[in-house]
Amino acid sequence: DSRSADSTVDSVCPYCGVGCQLRYHIKDDEILFVEGRDGPSNHNRLCVKGRFGFDYPRHSSRLTVPLIRREGAPKGVDPDFDPAQPWSHFREATWEEALDRAAQGLVSLKNAHGPNALAGFGSAKCSNEEAWLFQKLVRTGFGSNHVDHCTRLCHASSVAALMECIGSGAVTASFMQAQQADVVILTGCNPAINHPVAATFFKQAAKQGTKLIVLDPRGQAMGAHAYRTLRFTPGSDVSLFNAMLNVIVTEELYDQAYIDAHTEGFEALKAHVWDMTPEIMADSCGVSADAIREVARLYATADNAMIFWGMGISQHTHGTDNARCLISLALACGHTGRPGTGLHPLRGQNNVQGASDAGLIPMVMPDYQPVSDAQVRSAFEELWNTPLDDKPGLTVVEIMEAVRDGTIKGMYIQGENPAMSDPDLDHARAALGTLEHLVVQDLFVTETAQFADIVLPASAWPEKDGTVTNTNRQVQLGRQAMPLPGQAKPDWWIIQEIAKRFGLPWDYSHPRDVFAEMKRGMPSLDHITWERLEREGSVTYPCLSDDGPGEDVVFSETFPTTTGRAKFSPTLPLPPDEPIDAEYPTVLTTGRQLEHWHTGSMTRRARVLDDLEPEAVASLAPGELRRLDMQPGDPISITTRRGNITLKTRVDTGMPEGMVFVPFCYAEAAVNLLTNPALDPYGKIPEFKYAACRVDKA
Ligand code: SF4
């Protein structure tokens, strides 16, 4: 009831990359309810998470004091561990003691073994300012570039392809541009579930006549709005896209004027795809040649067309190749740089774009400036007054490998939960257990915190000021709406205290000080100031003037590559790393649900969301259940070469036969115990979307 609220505070949703603007209604320092505001990406709309996902800041298991592990307490994920009562494993500490112990452990490992003995995972759940400070601490305090975050599990392959082909990892146009497009391809994404408010823009576009083409192995909610749906064989993405390119090349549907003016390498691409006809590729793709020809023609002959993709594209060992193909489609047809055209990898986490921009990436400094570039390094060395390492750091999964082989001995993990989110969890958890010193900063004693030596109570998004950047490149301001509980502290403050204990002379008094420093190292923030964001709430980068809204569509004249031209990057179909066989005949794929967010630490503590989706389920096609002689709700056992979980079944008519889908938010049936850690060689992203498994009655 809005009449009983004490106050309202304007902010941004902490969940997905859509970045919906919202208004908290506050009573007695608690969030009474939330409503949508008229932000550029949501027009007053919110999905169920944005509306009902705010019990977590005041949840009874919220961490409110610093913790130090008790001598001899076992490390590991214990199903009986109660995060609200962690006292069997941890004791309460003062901030002074916890910070001293946290920093001393890291410093002494660095002194004994060198900078490469330490690594840090930052978080896309935190603000841009916190991401900036975290990577700055690792680079200037730890002394290496071993810093990464969940982009590595999400769109790293998309970014690798975009950087290679068009010189920029961000989207070329916002999702609002779909309403200007004649044709929109949605592939490997399920926006109605994962980007629900973006999905409303696609549905509105379809209502106004935009032809939606859904390319996905699974049937899905957007299919109901689609002009055409192609449900192709899991893992055959490159074959499908090359066949579409073949149609565009052999039927001369490409835009020669655009290609001549803006690209290089088209002749090689033409030769490369010449023999990959739809007729040849149809079998492996599991769709007809005619259907491939039709969608290729629809996309190529549209006046304006866009491609959106998600983790169905990126989370493969050929994820970078998948994205290269999509970029080639857009370049061949001249579908970038104008309203209603573009390439848009839909970002997962609310600030994964911003955290990446701010430098939580091991091979690049903020704004994707290579650490190996002497000029880049020298500019940051001058800004930070510290020498920097010239070697690219290790990525998320590589860091865990280095932990396992004993090279990395100490870690600082802020707001990430690799004990739930990494592939092949038994191995990842075993590695966490071998760390000599682990500092975890979070809201709860998560599965990862159960391995920590020190746990630092951090800030929930409604408890702090900060900026975040959504999938559309819109930089937006979140404001503090409620006080921190107990002794919990803002993340930026905690990182600064650790930095001081590394001898770094940091003296920030508010996130706006950090933002001011970011502007000195990040040209992408030109013309965007904290004061503007306080006034306007949202500014898109790149922004070309002090009062303009920023560029919704980019690269109309030139690309930010060395030649100013975009590049075609031909690709060859590759099989999944672990093809199905007689022993493991079913494809396991993982992802999210509408109601739950990533590893579930926030949404599973929201009463309404937990009421809606209370327990772990595996989705199977009706025919698959019949084959197993099972009913929906029966227990099922899923086994891969790496492990086994048991959970309930759910019938899903959108699932293809021969595939099972499991969300990764359920600790009691952690599907990442089963997933394949094999990496895409370019983006270093694991193959979450395809593992060979066996499904049995439990
Ligand atoms: Fe939040 Fe995304 Fe839902 Fe918007 S669509 S309310 S940003 S979770």
UniProtKB/TrEMBL annotation:
GO CC aspect terms: membrane; oxidoreductase complex
Keywords from the named record: 4Fe-4S, Iron, Iron-sulfur, Metal-binding, Oxidoreductase, Repeat
GO molecular function: 4 iron, 4 sulfur cluster binding; formate dehydrogenase (NAD+) activity; metal ion binding; molybdopterin cofactor binding; NADH dehydrogenase activity
Example GO BP: formate metabolic process
Residues annotated as domain 4Fe-4S Mo/W bis-MGD-type: 6-61
Keyword Signal tagged: no
Family: In the C-terminal section; belongs to the prokaryotic molybdopterin-containing oxidoreductase family.
Protein name (Swiss-Prot/TrEMBL): NAD-dependent formate dehydrogenase catalytic subunit /NAD-dependent formate dehydrogenase iron-sulfur protein
Organism of origin: Aidingimonas halophila
Residues of the full protein shown: 250 to 947 of 954
